[in-house]
């Protein structure tokens, strides 16, 4: 057990946390206004130049630029122009980079906007559903996960030989349950060109977003990739070689029912894969940074989303391996295997054996 902080030490911690929160909100402003991208593309700018390039009010641009420089996010030259350093630009503007984190600010801002509803849920039960968080939440999650699906997922799956062989079967059918913005489905369709991929999601705007993303990715008209609005029961019985659930099972109010539908959807010899948060095996306190991050997501987003429906398992983001094993067993799977996929963001891959 660590030594409890003094009042001064804890006050300092909260003070620094407040600074971090303010930086997050300032990043959200710069991201949504397009100011970071303008600096990345066109180079250093004065407040007037930035407002002329990207729009916005010059007085607000000056305050934001000075605040960003005061925080060390931007650099300021002797000519009074503010510059976005290359490494920072990658994190804030490069949508293909595994270091891309600008959507995190958007996600946390969307959570903060729902604080009155969250307080109500915490006081009286109930929850705050995914639709209530709006487009900022929906799109930020899709954008933050996109680089991992596009750049890391194909190699990760190829590294598991027997799984890769299933996915490469000529005419293989793959389902992606809880597909969200569709980037996981798009990555699967690209990695396995002889397969057909079907994404399903209970959130209708997410299905529409996925279809738009697929079309922009050049996969909307091939017939190998489709999206449907609904839950896993849409998949029917015995029609799929593989069913995936990427970072969604912990959000579902009835995860066992979903896994039952997944098991029924598999053909003989098919495989089910769940990618979910790489939590610790058991609760410990104090915990490491990843665990703290996951609990934060759970408090603000995932648990309230799951609790917005009745009945609800109330899983939350911190779904530990034993919890998934229990859900899988209740759904009729005989075993759960942790796949040898490492260094894949904050996630862990499980294969469920029917």
From TrEMBL:
Methyltransferase domain boundaries? 170-284
**Molecular function terms from GO:** methyltransferase activity
Q: Which domain of life is it from?
A: Bacteria
Keywords carried by this UniProt record: Methyltransferase, Transferase
Question: Biological process GO annotation list?
Answer: methylation
Is Transferase one of the keywords UniProt gives this record?
yes
State what protein this is by name.
2-polyprenyl-3-methyl-5-hydroxy-6-metoxy-1, 4-benzoquinol methylase
Please tell me the species this chain comes from: Planomonospora venezuelensis
């Amino acid at each position: 057990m660590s030594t409890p902080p003094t009042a001064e030490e804890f006050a300092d911690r909260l003070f620094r946390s407040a600074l971090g929160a303010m930086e997050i909100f300032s990043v959200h402003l710069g991201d949504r206004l397009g100011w970071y991208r303008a600096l990345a593309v066109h180079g250093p700018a004065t407040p007037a130049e930035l407002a002329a390039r990207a729009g916005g009010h010059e007085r607000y641009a000056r305050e934001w630029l000075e605040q960003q420089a005061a925080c060390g996010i931007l650099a300021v030259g002797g000519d009074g122009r503010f510059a976005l350093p290359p490494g920072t630009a990658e994190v804030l503007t490069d949508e293909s980079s595994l270091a891309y984190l600008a959507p995190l600010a958007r996600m946390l801002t969307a959570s903060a906007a729902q604080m009155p509803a969250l307080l109500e849920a915490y006081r009286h039960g109930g929850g705050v559903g995914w639709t209530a968080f709006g487009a900022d939440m929906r799109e930020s999650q899709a954008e933050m996960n996109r680089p991992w699906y596009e750049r890391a997922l194909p190699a990760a799956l190829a590294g598991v030989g027997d799984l890769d062989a299933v996915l490469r079967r000529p005419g293989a059918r793959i389902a992606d349950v809880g597909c969200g913005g569709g980037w996981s489905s798009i990555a699967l369709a690209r990695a396995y060109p002889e397969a057909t991929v079907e994404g399903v999601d209970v959130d209708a705007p997410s299905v529409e977003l996925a279809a738009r993303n697929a079309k922009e990715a050049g996969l909307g008209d091939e017939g190998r990739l489709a999206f449907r609005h609904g839950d896993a029961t849409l998949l029917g019985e015995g029609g799929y070689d593989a069913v995936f659930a990427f970072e969604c099972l912990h959000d579902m109010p009835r995860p066992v029912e979903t896994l039952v539908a997944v098991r029924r959807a598999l053909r003989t010899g098919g495989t089910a894969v769940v990618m979910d948060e790489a939590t610790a095996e058991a609760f410990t306190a104090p915990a490491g940074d990843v665990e703290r991050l996951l609990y934060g997501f759970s408090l603000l987003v995932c648990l309230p989303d799951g609790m917005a429906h009745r009945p609800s398992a109330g899983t939350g983001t911190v779904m530990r391996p034993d919890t998934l094993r229990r859900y899988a067993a209740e759904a009729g799977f005989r075993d759960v295997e942790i796949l040898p996929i490492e260094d894949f963001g904050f996630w862990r891959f499980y294969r469920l054996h029917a």
